[in-house]
Design a protein that fits this description.
Six copies of one chain form a homohexamer.
Chain A: E1 4-9, H1 16-25, E2 31-37, H2 48-59, E3 65-70, H3 74-81, E4 85-89, H4 93-109, E5 114-118, H5 129-137
Parallel strand pairs in A: 1-2, 1-4, 2-3, 4-5
């Protein structure tokens, strides 16, 4: 059976930290779907199309990585895509506690899906989408925090 | 003197975790008031009347538990109700830090009121109202996380 | 039924923080037993008799507080003393995680016993028996951190 | 070279905790600039002019403390003011993780600026601007948490 | 290429929590090696032979799980066994910080090996080998915390 | 008045993380004393003379950095050396909580001494003396984690 993982997030924007997670876990799976979750009641900073395009260009040429967007529960999306694994990066202890609640409630609703966590390498561990948006909003240059070739200018 | 405790919260919605806290602490008090705090500048997901009714039906028949709503400071409400104890559940270290600031500032403003904390049992420790709202919003079934007989469908 | 709480610890030494916990929770119980746990494979800094005597003199005249020592599991000791409550202070998030594991394993072995937590008041929240021992060991004066009248000099 | 530090924040409102940080670090610097960051997309509770005036009156007569407001990135503001140091208070572990991400991203964009942290004294460690706003909003008296002479009434 | 993971630990003793980690991750790997690390300068509570036998009997009949012991660095052991993955359970934020330092230093010494983390299911999240040893030492019954058929009596 | 800081620790061994802290804070002080605390009841891994020599060679030629060792309380040592500042690195939230207790108890015993904290740069944030000792003990090569020219081989 094909081993498929979903890497869900808002990726607002996709960072070097996110890129590294995908590259490090690719050898373990047959396919990783980077899946942009869209909540109609949330505001995003970068347009969905931009976010999608940035991820696509980051992995272009690698057929094992696909990019998608979805609404609804992550576990429902996983079922639809035949994915048995959710992958998440874990930077801080604050992250851990929220991720733990989500992972445990997901596990209780969908026992067939496992969430795997990976820690960022040190030099990427400070990269945070919230702070990147703040830098861009204030006219700063955040290009060093995102994959090569992404132009964050609005 | 009667031992009265206030269990304040937004209970949006009231979960099995909240229910368990009340049941476990009931033997210690003569009366526990489940008190829904209402802030006029906050948006709630479930209507106040629904939230109140769900708590009432959970404890109906037990005269030691009452349900109420209040505006203003929790310590002012406690004084009004003659309650010397505030009870709170503590799930995570992030909870702890915010609860600590609130409890210590409350203690400094109202030295006659103590805040007691209780930890959830393991199987309830992942239950989180924020995530329940997210499940309901996305059409998922969160009934396993709330007391028997509560219908979360909007 | 009498409401009895056990406040277990090594109290090496008993601090102003411990004293405050007992005084703040006394109105809630008919009796609080300050119970010094003794593990034969652990080294203590202050002799058991000293530790016991310091606690006794702190609460002398108050018949609702008794001092005892015990070996074995805390829940077994509670059963023996007819205590339905364990009380614990909670200073830090590191404390929380260890206390949580212990409280949950205790609850799973002895469902009739509840553990209640209370947070120190701000001015007492930095007081830590480990650091007090370090101060004493290095010839410093730690008397401000322990109840009136306790002489920590070895 | 003059040693200049920037103490950035929203100071909504300025608390006794903030005041203490400035006073404790003043001997280390030639000048501390208390700098109110203004984000056009954020709502503040107290008007900027009030917040500025409260800080000014707290340190009036001390020429080493100045008060200012700024928009844009903190590191850009530091460069403009010739400040090589950012100072921040650290209350909780949740604070630490966000401060760490910000400090590390700042360091990566402006290697010539260092962020220094100081911990509150125990009796001030529970003071939190968010909770103060909540107290004021609910008609409570929060004057004990702010410097002498500040009238928080709206 | 065969996907091999090492699950290192002292397993003193192996718990239901450990068992669950192996079972949940087995579908992802061709082989999981439960590897008991032996440090000559550390004291263990249960004899190595017992610990090994308990793990073997837990997974007997499943050829994808093997049990081994090793001395030296975990990454050196992984290289020897051709394992590209280390798996670790993550219970608490305190765990996270130590695991993070180890995982990042391992990654810096052996870039070809990834550490994956998985969170316990709620009902297993309180299980802790340290506390189990404490229960056994005090004559308590900890059998509910270890896999079926393990007799912890010394 | 000369601004003198003490950087206390066991430095067992001194790491690149420690080195970076000294270099980043040097511009703020006239003198930084790297002070090896010696507790007679503690075992160290590397001999005191080695640890001292490694720090000296790291900063040789820079007269603003001196190396010393001391017994007794850090605040007493600061008083003796006329140092008004203690500097400490802060890596994790677990660190924070212990450092907080120590800093607050120090402040309460010696109000004239301030403790300043600095966070490691990302690429150094995983470096941990405990883990380095473990690597050396197991025959690994930890030279990348210590300053240039230090030979950790025993």
């Amino acid at each position: 059976m094909e081993k498929i993982a979903v890497f869900p997030g808002s990726f607002d924007p996709f960072t070097k930290g996110h890129e590294s997670i995908v590259r490090r876990l690719l050898p373990l799976f047959d396919k990783i779907i980077v899946a942009i979750g869209v909540n109609s009641h949330k505001q995003y900073f970068f347009p969905l199309e931009k976010r999608k395009q940035w991820i696509e260009q980051t992995f272009k040429g690698d057929v094992r990585v696909s990019v998608d967007n979805f609404t609804g529960l992550t576990i429902d999306y996983c079922h639809k895509m035949n994915a048995k694994y959710i992958i998440r990066g874990l930077r801080t202890t604050t992250d851990l506690e929220f991720e733990k609640a989500i992972a445990q409630m997901n596990k209780s609703m969908a026992d067939d899906i496992e969430t795997l966590f990976i820690l960022p390498t040190p030099e990427l561990s400070a990269i945070n989408s919230t702070i990147i948006r703040d830098i861009v909003r204030n006219g700063g240059d955040a290009s060093r925090f995102v994959p090569e070739g992404i132009n964050l200018k609005l």
